[in-house]
Amino acid sequence: MDEQKKNLNVGKDAVVMGDVTGNVGDRSVVIRATDNRGNVILNQQMAVGYSAQAGPESIAIGAFAGAGAANLPTVADLIIQIEKLKESLDLSMERASEFQGLLDQFQVMNSEPQPDKSRMSKILNSLRSIAESAGGSGILEIIKILLSQL
């Protein structure tokens, strides 16, 4: 590796693919050649960039980019839906408090630049367990969507 390739500074929430050197700013996406012929090969579903979303067989590049994902609700939208539906659950005060605490933890983790998806999945499964015991079928559907997006 030559000296120039060692000099790569990547900003917060930035994405770099391929042979890139220099400075990359916050929430930037830089894609350079991915093979030895100078080609950029992107041949599978991917979302590249801060809060990007890609649907099946789609590629979305850039901060808040979306491709083929018009019908995918955001995590924030889904959390709002859970907040509205939780009032319909038949929960004791203790279980309601536990449910809210888990939901709060999930929201905090989701706002992190690189959330721990394994931990988020465990939280969602705990929320699902509470909702199942309280007859929350609407919440169960939302949790299923959230789990599929992790």
Can you walk me through this structure?
By secondary structure, the chain is an alpha/beta fold. The protein has 2 domains: 4-67, no CATH class; 75-149. Helix content is 40%, strand content 15%. The strands form 4 sheets. The protein has a two-stranded parallel sheet with strand order 1-3. A two-stranded parallel sheet has the order 2-4. A two-stranded parallel sheet has the order 5-7. α1 (75-86) runs antiparallel to α4 (137-149), α2 (93-110) packs antiparallel against α3 and α3 packs antiparallel against α4 (137-149). The radius of gyration is 20 Å and the shape is elongated.
Strand order, sheet with most strands: 1-3
Distance between the termini: 35 Å
- For this structure, the quaternary state is single chain
Q: What Rg is obtained from the alpha carbons, in whole angstroms?
A: 20 Å
Describe the largest sheet: 2 strands, parallel
Overall geometric form? elongated
Helix/strand structural class: alpha/beta
- SS element count, helices: 4
Q: Give the count of structural domains.
A: 2
Helix and strand element order: EEEEEEEEHHHH
What's the average pLDDT?
82
How many strand elements? 8
- Detail the poorly predicted runs: none
Percentage of β-strand residues: 5-15%
Helix percent band: 40-55%
